[in-house]
Amino acid sequence: MKSFRELLPYVKPYMLFAILAPIFMCIEVAMDLLSPTIMQHIIDDGIANDDTAYVVKLGILMLVAAVIGLIGGVGCTIYSTRAAVNFAADIRRDVFKMTEKFSSKNMDNIGVGKLITIVTNDITAVQQALMMTLRVFVRGPLLFIGAVAIVWFSARELFPVLLVVIPILIVLIYFFSYKTGKLFARVQKAMDKVNTKLQETFAGIRVIKAFNRQDYEIKAFKRVNEELTKRNMSAEQVILTLMPVMLFIVNIGVVIGMWMGAIKVNEGTLEVGVILAFTNYLTIIMNGLVSSSHVLMQITRSFTSAGRIQQVLETKIDITDPTNPVSDNNIKGEVEFKSVHFSYSKNGEYVLKDISFHVNSGETIGIIGQTGSGKSTLIKLLPRLYDPDLGEVLINGINIKEYTIEKLRGAIGFVPQNAKLFAGSIAENIRFGKEEATLEDMEKATNSAAASEFIEKLEDQFAHELMQGATNLSGGQKQRLSMSRAFIRQPKILVLDDSTSAIDAISEVQVQQALGQYLSDTTVFIVSSKVSSIINADRILVMEDGMIVASGTHEELLVSSDVYRSIYATQSGKGVLSYE
Ligand SMILES: Nc1ncnc2c1ncn2[C@@H]1O[C@H](COP(=O)(O)OP(=O)(O)OP(=O)(O)O)[C@@H](O)[C@H]1O
């Protein structure tokens, strides 16, 4: 409830629509309430007295009331839709903006599947809740109160029937609303699982096909889909059972009303039209209560959704700009790690332990080690994708937390392990690194990344369109473009995270040579599991189990490091070398 209230400021810009909608609804309700009374007069005063002119007059009045009611209904629909749809669009915008600010840890904590459910399902649920509130929440109680008041004034003899029927209906509604609230929370959780599965399957569709695991995936999806179906069924069944149960109670009320009315008509204390009007008002009362209950259920359901939306909007971003950022406008590539410790989870084991090293501007540093030794994690700390738990990372002798994130990341070119490209032209993808890049800039960058040879062969060259995930490129082509995108920034610090794994040895040497000319002042970090990628580095850091166990040039390490020697020996096919 609190979380839904906290979303209400989003209605503020659309307050006029939110006020107009219930006003139009009041008009429709007033006309709905008028009709049975007009009908009663047609029967008791017109038909009973054979007064045709009176019947025609009231008939026209009923028609006018129906037209005014229609205008009220349409007006309410238009304004409630405008208010609710815009309200939801603004929330969606802010949720998206917030996720763009998320640190990697924030993202890991919430999970992509849940985020997709929030942006699609949960926001739709709060939109529906607001729309129904504006349309029906006014209509329900107004119809209810109006009809009860009219029965009190015009058919008081039958009022006791309401005193029995209404409390039963209210108890039923309360019970059903309470139950559906709980059931819909489970529906949302099941929906998260379906979205996570979908996202994982679509992203890995090629692996699934290559391993012929379609049947396995279909079975896995069937499981989560069945769970969602089951939960949806339980929730919908509860909602749908409410209506027949309430109708049953109302019908009993109608029968009792007619029976009591018939006795009074026989006694001459009641007219037939009043009984007819009473049964109509009883149905209106039920409709009023049912629609209120539906809104209540929708609102209860939206509390869970609002809570999940708030969870995103209120996420504490753990990587933020400093309050007083340094004004150093000239970030150079001098990097230092001082006793850095890092763990992916709170109180978890350190993945990086006591990492300390210093790099001069313009140096090339190779980082090598067994898989899982912490190489990628180490370089992710540079652009502050994660922050260390202990120790500090410095650039130009200043803790990187003192720079604005924009400034820090602006100085770093990052080529990730998996070349992530976006749907759009090759030029758009390269300009992702530098928006204002000219054709000449792009040519230089793609030359250095050994990408120009394949781009030149394409009919439309830089205008060539990439499909989503760049599936129309080879792995090596993707890596070359991913490097071009980083090179074009001419960054002070360049990080290549195992980004040449799909590039042949000759092209890799070309890239390394071109880098020396194109980015001669840049500090380069090359993470690789291949010795050939880092063999020419000014210094190589050897990692094992989250620690730097040796550092030096290739030749020095061959003498000083057992770990390096054994990696080199395995890759050069010379068996285990010994320099002792
Ligand atoms: N997002 C994450 N959440 C939790 N643990 C993680 C995460 N990313 C990596 N790890 C763990 O951190 C450790 C170091 O991983 P890292 O990716 O840095 O290794 P690496 O040396 O780069 O390995 P590789 O050569 O295989 O890429 C591994 O044990 C890995 O399981």
How would you describe what is shown here?
The protein is of the alpha/beta class and 580 residues long. The chain has helices at 2-7, 15-47, 52-101, 104-110, 112-154, 159-203, 205-210, 214-267, 272-313, 375-380, 405-410, 426-431, 439-448, 452-457, 475-487, 505-518, 531-534, 554-560, 562-572, and strands spanning 335-342, 352-359, 364-369, 390-395, 398-399, 412-415, 424-425, 465-466, 493-497, 523-527, 539-544, 547-552. The protein has two domains: 2-313, ABC transporter type 1, transmembrane domain (ABC transporter transmembrane region fold, Up-down Bundle); 328-411 and 527-580, Rossmann fold (3-Layer(aba) Sandwich), CATH 3.40.50.300. The strands form three sheets. Strands 6-9-10-3-11-12 form a six-stranded mixed β-sheet. Strands 2-1-4-5 form a four-stranded antiparallel β-sheet, with no helix packed on it. Helix 2 runs parallel beside helix 5 and helix 5 packs antiparallel against helix 6. The protein is elongated. The structure holds adenosine-5'-triphosphate (ATP). Adenosine-5'-triphosphate binds at residues 108, 344, 351, 369, 371-377, 498, 529.
Task: Return the domain count.
Answer: 2
The rough form would be described as elongated
List the uncertain runs. 575-580
What fraction of residues sit in β-strands?
5-15%
Q: Which range best describes the helical content: under 10%, 10-25%, 25-40%, 40-55%, 55-70% or over 70%?
A: 55-70%
Question: What's the number of extended β-strand segments?
Answer: 12
Features:
single chain; 580 residues; alpha/beta; ABC transporter transmembrane region fold; Rossmann fold; 2 domains; 6-stranded mixed β-sheet; 4-stranded antiparallel β-sheet; 10% strand; disordered C terminus; binds adenosine-5'-triphosphate; transmembrane helix; ATP binding; ABC1_TM_dom; ABC_transporter-like_ATP-bd; nucleotide-binding
